[in-house]
Amino acid sequence: MKVEFSAFPKAFSGNVAVFVGAEKKLQASAKAIDGALGGAVMRAIEAGRFTGAKNQTLSVLGQKGFSRLLLLGIGKDAELDARAAEALGGLVAGDANAAGQKAVTVVVDAPKGGTVTPAALAAHIALGAQLRSYRFDKYKTKEKPEQKNALERLTVVVGSPADAKKAYAALEPVIDSVFFTRDLVSEPANVLYPAEFARRAKALTKVGLKVEVLGEAEMKKRGLNVLLAVGQGSVRESQLLVMSWMNGPKNQAPVALIGKGVTFDTGGISLKPAGGMEDMKWDMGGAGAVTGAMRLLAARKAKANVIGICALVENMPDGNATRPGDVVKSLSGQTVEIINTDAEGRLILCDAMWYAQERYKPQAMVELSTLTGAIIVALGHERAGLFSNDTPLATNLRKAGAEIGEKLWRMPLGPKYDKLIDSDIADMKNVGGGRDGGSITAAQFLQRFVKDGVAWAHLDIAGMAWSSKGNDTTPKGATAYGVRLLDRLIADNYEK
Ligand code: BES
Ligand code: MN
Ligand code: ZN
Question: To which H or E segment does residue 59 belong?
Fold first, then answer.
């Protein structure tokens, strides 16, 4: 979809979307159109329950030169911020695609008490429209034109088009990076296995990332045995993906971003039931988010030192697969009794985290994983679970999430939970306590691999990486949750 910004025209034509504030307050353009149409807009409003509340829409038949008028509820003046603008852009794109419109014009009549400039509103409307228009249709060979996205051109009318264009240019890397991650997460596991994921990450050298990939032989030599134990039942080679973006002050310790990249999780010998198992193609959503965030940091030339490390494996049952009860020595030297081969995420992450700390001495380490079904039971699909040993880091993450619209909820850790994963024959076991507190015992396992003095956070994104319904700025499917959150965390706290 092409995006243009233009100044206010003498008269509107085509499909036009205009703002209406709370309590049926027509903004300037809506009012002018109402006048030109002899009060038809107000009559349409009075005939139904549209009040101009945030995210309400009402479609009115066009007359006198334009084809269709879409009223966009912007709510109270102060409610119209960047996130709300993205939602409006998403609504417009969704509406245009559903109605089969090729072009639409959105008119930005910024409310007086707004918190962002008209140019920023315009840019975020365009961003929202783009994010909503994502499609993963490469495997559809028989799609009819009416099943494809109709919208080809979005024109955003604003008093300061040059500023809006500039603001939008600064946001374009967000679109590319979110789409990059959504593609990774959407791909089926026969196409996207560890080496293919690594290959796509290697292509990011073109945006300026340094990318290294360790194969099984290198990992074996170094002792990442627990990670390797998860992948040993698969014919696909496990990979450790190491990306770096060191554009900050020379002596500043980096932030390490760690991602769970299980390209398919069958559960291994502790095999999952058949129902819904296809969902486990997106068990690499954490690695997808970390890779997309690294891409975004590089594309916008962030002034920070950031390392991205993804543990990439396929969890399969096989004659060579890890058995329940096997004991394996981790890179940290601690031994792990693998009770349940379906609790594999924590296994690959413990070695990836240790590797990151040994090699890069990070000041902070943020890890993202589709780790437990239990976090979905606790928080549903509205918030990711946040576990941390460091309250300032946890607060910064929560703030970044609230600002960008990728929300988090802090969960507890503690010695009583930790005790549940003590093993009779090894230093720890990979499950404990039955299903009770399942996302917490998983986090406790990870915490045993955090070195003293490292601020650490674990984000359990199992409920967030995939959306079965979609929302204003995300069609159903892969969300790329975490890409913008991590980017905002770095921007707000590590770039100075
Ligand atoms: N990848 C799953 C967690 C998951 C479940 C992600 C549903 C997204 C949607 C993880 O590897 C897993 O299997 N976890 C088990 C842990 C259990 C065996 C202790 C779980 O949550 O059931
Ligand atoms: Mn599993
Ligand atoms: Zn998994």
Answer: strand 57-61
**Which residues are tagged catalytic?**
272, 346
Task: Tell me which residue has tokens 């009402």.
Answer: 58
pLDDT for res 114: 81
Q: What is the DSSP letter of 474?
A: B
Q: What atom of ligand 1 comes closest to residue 431's alpha carbon?
A: 19
Task: Specify the pTM.
Answer: 0.98
Q: Tell me the pLDDT tens digit for each residue of 169-209.
A: 999 999 999 999 999 999 999 999 999 999 999 999 999 99
Which helix (H) or strand (E) covers residue 139, if one does? none
> Could you give the angle at the alpha carbon of 470 between the alpha carbons of 116 and 435, nearest 5°?
115
Sites in the chain below the pLDDT cut of 70: none
Give the model's pLDDT for residue 487: 98
CB of 186 within 8 A of CB of 479? no
Q: What's the sign of the alpha-carbon dihedral 374, 380, 384, 388?
A: negative
Contact 346, 421 (CB under 8 A): no
- Identify which ligand lies nearest to the alpha carbon of 465: 1
Helices 438-447 and 345-360: angle between axes, nearest 10 degrees: 30
**Could you tell me the domains of the chain?**
2-165 (3.40.220.10), 178-493 (3.40.630.10)
Instruction: Please give the Cα distance from 268 to 88 (Å, whole number).
Output: 44
Q: 78 CB contacts (<8 Å, ≥6 apart)?
A: 113, 114, 115
Mark the residues whose beta carbon lies below 5 A from ion ligand 3. 262, 265, 283, 345
227 CA distance to ligand 2 centroid (A)? 13
**What is the per-residue pLDDT for 64?**
74
- Establish whether residue 462 lines the binding site of ligand 1, counting it when its CB lies within 6 angstroms of any ligand atom: yes
Give residue 337 CA to ligand 3 midpoint distance, Å: 17
Long-range contacts of 430-439 (CB under 8 A, 24+ apart): 430/336, 430/337, 430/338, 430/339, 430/340, 430/343, 430/346, 430/347, 431/339, 431/340, 431/343, 435/374, 437/374, 438/372, 438/373, 438/374, 439/371, 439/372, 439/374, 439/375, 439/378, 439/385, 439/411
